[in-house]
Amino acid sequence: MQSVKKLIKILKNKNRIFIQTHNYPDHDAVASAFALQYLLRNLKIETKIIYHGDILRDSLQKMNERLKIDILPHYKYKMNGEDSIVLVDSNKKNKNVAELKGNVVAVIDHHPGESFEDLEFCDIRSNYGACATIIFSYFAELKMEPSAEVATALHTAINFDTHQFTRNVSPIDIETVAMLYRVSDVTLVNSLVRNSIKIDDFKYYRYLIDNIRIENNFAYCHFTQGCNKDLLAILADYILSVEEIKFVLLSTQSSEGISFCVRSENPKIPANTAIQTILQGIGSGGGHIDMAGGRIPETKDFNQEKIFKKCLSIAKSGS
Ligand SMILES: [Mn+2]
Predict the structure, then answer these.
(1) Is residue 196 predicted with pLDDT exceeding 90?
(2) What residues contact residue 209 under an 8 Å CB cut-off, 6+ apart?
(3) Which residue has the higher pLDDT, 96 or 191?
(4) Number of domains in the chain
(5) CA 164 to ligand 1 centroid distance, Å
(6) How far is the CA of 200 from the centre of ligand 1 (A)?
(7) pTM
(8) Ligand 1 centroid to 183 CA: how many Å?
(9) C-alpha 299 to ligand 1 mean position (Å)
């Protein structure tokens, strides 16, 4: 745990500052960046929020529009070696963070990870359910009130990242939401959380139900025709909501090779280590105990049957 005062001191002397989210940002990454930008702006430190990839979820696009969050793809700025970067909801050298021109000076994250020595500021709190909860603690430390927009974004983020308080949630996440509840636009939060899919997504649900293989509390499905990564995560949660299924692996063909999404309800099968084992030698992965992701860069290294068997043996070892 770090004091935000240290971060402020570091950033005071910097030229141009960018707050970078992980690639294909989610609600937590964007809300954390937005809240940090607001906090720093109050202290006369200007920043720009950037990301790599796309904003996949309609609900996130809606959040950005409604709360007027100014976030742009990094290539919209001509970044250079003099620029400073603050990473939120992600860590340096993560596979899901594009390495951009500029120096990563600070990391604020809630994923398990190491603290790199060349960072001037590193605040990793892996027991927190959302990065938004860390950012809110900075407001508390400075006795600063978030605006209604900032509160709404943080509230939404904690809801999403903890899967409505059912995953990786800590008492501090709950206390934070209790405080935000008074200031945030609860109707908007609920609408963003509730409306996560579109009618057009039904075809993926149909494909999933028709093609899923279930064995030993384990479920696997590969989307040969592709499926966007955010929807893949929603589908994985949907399958995990089935009583008999405790461990889920979904994969899809994508522009970056094969992408994976893992969910586990069984503490004996941690999702993050399971995906690392499954993709050993052909790809990479990481995340939390109950949710993780991964990727095989080269499609030719992907063998659906091998992946299924490897995963099944992991599922059996934990049951
Ligand atoms: Mn997060």
Answers:
(1) no
(2) none
(3) 191
(4) 2
(5) 13
(6) 27
(7) 0.89
(8) 22
(9) 28
244 shares a domain with 180: no
Mean pLDDT of 52-81: 95
Looking at the structure, do residues 186 and 223 belong to the same domain, yes or no?
no
Angle between helices 148-161 and 131-142 (to 10 degrees): 140
Task: State in Å: Cα 161 to ligand 1 middle.
Answer: 6
Please report where in the chains the tokens 């889920």 appear, as a residue.
248
User: Residue 106's pLDDT band (boundaries 50, 70, 90)?
Assistant: very high
CA 292 to ligand 1 center in whole angstroms:
12
Distance 305 CA to ligand 1 centre (A): 32
Domain holding 292, by residue range, is 200-317
* The last residue of a domain, from among 194, 214, 245: 194
Dig out the tokens for 228 from the structure: 């966007």
In the reported structure, the alpha carbon of residue 58 is separated from the centroid of ligand 1 by a whole-number distance in angstroms of 18
Q: What is the pLDDT of residues 255-268, one digit of tens each?
A: 889 999 999 999 99
State whether 43 and 162 are in the same domain: yes
